[in-house]
Amino acid sequence: MKSTDPADYQWTPRPFAGMAKDFADGFRNAPHSHRRAQLTWAVSGVMTVTAAPGAWVVPPNRAVWIPGGTVHAIRVSGRVAMRALYIEPEIARPLGDECKVIMVSPLLRELILEIVAAPLNYDETSRMGHVAALVLDEIRALDAQPLHLPMPHDRRLRVVCESLLHDPARPETLETWSDTAGGSSRTLARLFAKETGMRFVDWRRQARLAQALVGLASGQDVASVSRTVGYASPSAFTQMFRGALGKAPSEYF
User: Fold this and answer.
1) 66 three-state secondary structure
2) Are 70 and 40 within 8 A, CB to CB?
3) Model-level pTM?
């Protein structure tokens, strides 16, 4: 069996190394980093990856790109079967120096599984060399997905965002938040656009979507999840969910 210690995959002579590792519901790991870039996909369950710029939600048909040297932590919801590719920094550089979530196409899924199943020191002149090269092309062709929650630096916005992460169902408008955060609603709106690239209502919707994915992965029913994240009815929640991810919540997992 191949190792389940990421450290064993950082210095292999091959440019790609694939690791399989399973986690129990609720697992959390401490902030850490890897020398190599990392593409991480969960066959089942949901991962939430946090780093300095924000948080990324990773359901089963998505993967997260983590550039080499990025300090990050992972929280698991549901039983997660993780499959990770570790890629040499020189080769990974064209794929970007920021974390992002990408769609896992059927082709990328099979390529990841091939590399994970291959020996650590596979023959680069065999078909595995072609598989590894095709992974880069496939990642490059896939657009970033809207599952990122950028975290602002301004302390007033942090008050708002951290409160919503703790309880995304909170219904306050920016006008109401202005009393708590210590800035006018106009100032907060301008800062949201500047520091996160999003409007307040869009950021809150993303926070609710993130929490909803965690709840659904843990086995909660749609009605319970919709109430937990602040929707008055399952139908309103389903409309939001389908618009963001292309499927109804009852079909997603």
Assistant:
1) strand
2) no
3) 0.78
Q: What is the mean pLDDT of the chain?
A: 90
Query: Does residue 146 surpass a pLDDT of 70?
Result: no
Residue 225 tokens read as 């999840």
Separation between Cα atoms, residue 167 and residue 49, nearest integer Å: 18
DSSP string, 131-186: HHHHHHHHHHHSPBPS-EEEPP-SHHHHHHHHHHHH-TT----HHHHHHHHTS-HH
Q: What is the pLDDT of residues 212-231, one digit of tens each?
A: 988 888 788 999 999 999 99
Residue 142's identity, in one-letter code, is L
Q: Give per-residue pLDDT as tens, 148-183.
A: 888 888 889 988 998 998 899 999 998 999 888 888
Q: Decide the pairing of beta strands 80-87 and 37-42.
A: antiparallel
User: What CA–CA distance (Å, rounded) separates 70 from 32?
Assistant: 8
Burial class (CB in 10 A: 0-12, 13-18, 19+), 189: middle
